[in-house]
Amino acid sequence: MDRKGRFFVFEGIDGSGKSTQIQLLKDRIEATGVRCLETKEPTDGPIGSLVHQCMTGRTTADEQTIAALFAADRLDHLLNETDGLCQKIQQGISVISDRYILSTYAYQSVRVPLEWLIQMNAQATQALQPDCHIFIDVDPEITLERMAKGRFHTELYETKERLTEVRDRYFDLFDRFAQQENIFIVDGNQSIEAIANDIWEHVAHYYV
Ligand code: ADP
Q1: Is the pLDDT of residue 117 over 80?
Q2: Ligand 1 pocket test: which of 136, 137, 146, 197 has the largest number of ligand atoms within 8 Å of its C-beta?
Q3: Which contiguous run of DSSP H or E holds residue 8?
Q4: Are 43 and 76 in contact, with CB atoms under 8 Å apart?
Q5: FRET pair for 34, CA 20 to 30 Å: which of 77, 168, 169, 208?
Q6: Number of CB atoms found within 10 A of residue 65's CB
Q7: How far is the CA of 2 from the centre of ligand 1 (A)?
Q8: 105-144 in b/e burial notation, b at 16+ Cβ within 10 A?
Q9: Residue 42: is the preceding peptide bond cis (ω within 30°)?
Q10: HEC string of 34-86?
Q11: Residue of the CA atom closest to atom 10 of ligand 1
């Protein structure tokens, strides 16, 4: 793709501070005079809604079907004629997504073979590769404390063991994809401002 805008993806366990940092990075990008759009996966589009229903148990489907829905939602996110990200990026808009392909691999590879997920997402990988995947690395115990303070819904069912497993899977993926993807791991145990500064230091060269 002939790229004009940038594409950044935030990854991390739930409660790691993705939304907080996405907003701060967006503000910094916009301060340089570049338009910036914040988005997330699964999306709020029609296929994303089905994915949300499967995740909350309102609709039941086989794990492979759910994985295929995630992949379809991602393609729609990228290629939709009305508001697809590829088109936005070609217009020079920077896009920041809360989760992308590495989330699929980290969360779904428990039930669906990783190789299968990689194949199923090959089109999306080709259509839009992130300039940088930013992984906010937080100690699962700290995440749980933060969530207990600020949240009151499903995430409270998270356990330290599960969060640790997801974090471990992310690190296995970083080893595997180190050659082909630009992955930045930021120490998420710091203050909100210190994390934002580290991230900006890493991506500012795209703008200044
Ligand atoms: P995510 O989007 O990854 O689920 P959030 O950005 O919503 O995470 O952050 C989860 C909670 O932790 C929120 O209440 C947020 O205010 C708080 N938080 C985020 N980053 C930090 C930080 N560096 N230090 C302390 N609290 C934080």
Answers
A1: yes
A2: 146
A3: strand 7-11
A4: yes
A5: 77
A6: 13
A7: 35
A8: bbbbbeebebeebbebbeebeebbbbbbbbbbbbbbeebb
A9: yes
A10: CCEEEEECCCCCHHHHHHHHHHHCCCCCCHHHHHHHHHHHHHHHHHCCCCCHH
A11: 15
Write the pLDDT tens digit of every residue in 128-179: 999 999 999 999 999 988 888 876 554 456 788 999 999 999 999 999 999 9
Q: Which atom of ligand 1 is nearest to the CA of 155?
A: 4
Q: Which two tokens stand for residue 193?
A: 């401002």
Q: Alpha carbon 81 to chain centroid distance?
A: 22
Read off the pLDDT of residues 16-73 as tens digits, 9 standing for 90 and up: 999 999 999 999 999 999 999 999 999 999 999 999 999 999 999 999 999 999 999 9
